[in-house]
Automatic annotation (TrEMBL):
Any Pfam family the entry gives: AP_endonuc_2
Name under which the protein is recorded: Hydroxypyruvate isomerase
UniProt entry keywords in alphabetical sequence: Isomerase
Family: Belongs to the hyi family.
An example Gene Ontology molecular-function term: hydroxypyruvate isomerase activity
All residue ranges annotated as the Xylose isomerase-like TIM barrel domain in the record: 21-255
Organism of this sequence: Caldovatus sediminis
Active-site positions on this chain: E143, E240
Gene3D superfamilies assigned: Divalent-metal-dependent TIM barrel enzymes (3.20.20.150)
One GO BP annotation of this record: glyoxylate metabolic process
Amino acid sequence: MPRFAANLSMMFTEAPFLDRFALAARAGFKAVEFLFPYEHPAAEIAKRLADNGLRQVLFNLPPGDWARGERGLAALPDRRGEFREALARALDYAAALSCPRLHVMAGLRPEGVPHDTLLATFAANLDRAAEECAKAGVKPVIEPINHRDIPGYFLNTTDQAAAIIRALGPERIGMQFDLYHCQVTEGDLVRRVERHLPLIAHMQVADTPGRNEPGTGEVNWPFVFRRIDELGYRGWIGCEYRPAGETTAGLGWFAPYRNET
Ligand SMILES: O=C(O)C(=O)[C@@H](O)CO
Ligand SMILES: [Mg+2]
């Protein structure tokens, strides 16, 4: 059976961030992910995880100035120093939270910079991230993101991500396969999971088109989840969706998977 992690940036937003850990555990989750921990001391988050018997399975490197629209630094040639600092900060948190995966966001394509320059920067930063992360027992992951949610994002398709991962070594870098982004951009979900399975180190889910919980949109999730399981994926699937109503009221879809650890 697939194992689901609650995404605490999107779920349980009825409560302040630090109180969401207890709500996720009460709802039956054994693991959590979120976008960014950096507004809270790592020790405080570690305490919430321990108090609630939860594992931290993923979070993101600092993405630059999120409030001003930045969405990562890794492909940006003039931000390499900042990328190194972001990596070090994320690794400090990962150590404190015993987190095995870090999402390295590529960033938005700056106007006038050739694609090859961005790609070379992304590859060089990922190479460095892989080296530093390996020392800490962490795997960095990259995620193709659709044009509608983040217009101008550098990494958009699973094939593009796969080519970068193969060039750098799948044992060093993984794919964060977000089924929601894949359905928006590419579709053919099960065939794409089959194609990229050896590279996939983390998954995420939301239904399309609304980015709400599974069962609110157009995808046959029981079939997709069953195939993912049959294909042998044993990693986590982060529930990166905006609940259509109150979070707990929308967890009916999760009932068959609640006991997976
Ligand atoms: O948007 C997503 O999908 C994510 O996984 C985030 O980490 C990046 O915005
Ligand atoms: Mg995602």
